[in-house]
Please model this.
Amino acid sequence: MKRIYLDYNATTPVRPEVLEALLPYYRDQFGNPSSVHWAGRQVSGAVEKAREQVAALLNCSPAEIVFLSCGTEADNMSLKGTVDALGEKGNHIITTAVEHPAVLETCRYLEKTGCKVTYLPVDSDGRLDLADLEKAITAQTVLISVMWANNETGNIYPIEQIGAIAKARGIRFHTDAVQAVGKLEIDVQKANIDLLALSGHKLGAPKGVGVLYVRRGTRLTPFMHGGHQERNRRAGTHNVAGIVGLGKACELAMAERESTCARVKELRDRLEQGIFARIPQVKLNGHPGERLPNTLNVSFAWIEGESLLLNLDMKGIAASSGSACTSGSLEPSHVLGAMCVEVTLAHSSTRFSLGPDTTAEDIDYVLEVLPPIVQRLRDMSPLYNCGKVDACETCDTVKKL
Amino acid sequence: MYSEKVMDHFSNPRNVGEIENPDGVGEVGNASCGDIMKIFLKVDNNVITDVKFKTFGCGAAIATSSMVTEMAIGKTIEEALQLSNQAVAEALDGLPAQKMHCSNLAADALHEAIKNYRATHP
Model:
């Protein structure tokens, strides 16, 4: 059976060049980079080289790069570390209703400890109104945290404009750029970013390594206490192989991002146009234009997302859904909820996220097998052709698609 | 995550569809939780002779709907009322824990259809 992976926003395979670069650091060059002897020295150079590779991609100084375990750790450290370090200034955080749980759940935790958090709303396309942001700022505001791009819809947020607002008001600015790095141009200077989170496994590096960019001079309480690694910013022995791999992945992203993204966008558009041409009553979730080049999130009215994913899986296609059944809770996606997507359509949402290895044949195969699957599930659904079109709220919503 | 039996009933669901002029119809669940099951009954001489279903929901919702139709056909009304959600899940060799409370409603839908049958056939 064909195997087609269209879930690159969940994770990516380690790139061959990255694997080749990192493998020696498991066995031949096994030293601890904090050691003074030959074994440590060999390895500390590799960690510093990776730091330069990451810094080049973000347009910052290598000294501003902190290696840690994952994007979630970087987000946790940014939020908790800021609240702890700036406690005397205030206790108010401004974020959005569509953040990744790594930010949202950290905010919920901080609320329990006495912080105030403003969750900015979004419109039906998932866009922020920056006037809402300006209005939410108070004398107590210590941090603005807005994701660069949304993992579910692919929506891109106006990070440069938000950075300018934060700078003008003297407020620290954090962005979760986990989905953006490798897909968009990232310049922390231009966008006036103080803290930026990225994750290795979203751009062809292995799982278990991430980065927090910390602008020079930013007071931030460490999240991990222990040894003196990372200039006392992050204790714990370095994940050397992971760090080397992440450095290589950043170098590749720097060289290839534009051409890869242009190709991926063409395929994503082919998938999007193909779906809308072949299947009626489909809703695009997210903004048509201001969106990552690789992401397509659509709701197929009348059917539930998990049952669609299982059917696609049986055909070898890996995708993802915002249905409650795949989130482990009873609620469908909080992102689609914030966009006021009608609830059955939220349960129907399906995300295809493409990557550098996606081919036109993959997309054509999906377009061939998807329509009959959707029709079969619709024929099984009590909502489809339910016969009470005028009295039914769902039908009313779907009619407008 | 799902047993082979669940996947079998999910990929080849039994008794999908509607019955014209059914003797009873039952619907449970709601759109907000992501599962809606509708069961149609044909009853002859107090025995369930045909059952069909339509379901909006996840793999577990579709598989339990399919299984309950197989289990109910041929049973008397009283026997069918003894069928529990738990028994349906067991007949499928179990369901993942998080599905037990949300998507395991097929016996409830069957009972609703029987209630409707009794109300319309006094």
Remarks:
- The CA atoms of residues 313 and 319 of chain A lie 8 Å apart.
- The mean pLDDT of chain A is 95.
- Chain A has two domains: 4-9+257-399, 16-253.
- Chain A touches chain B through 23 residues (CB under 8 Å).
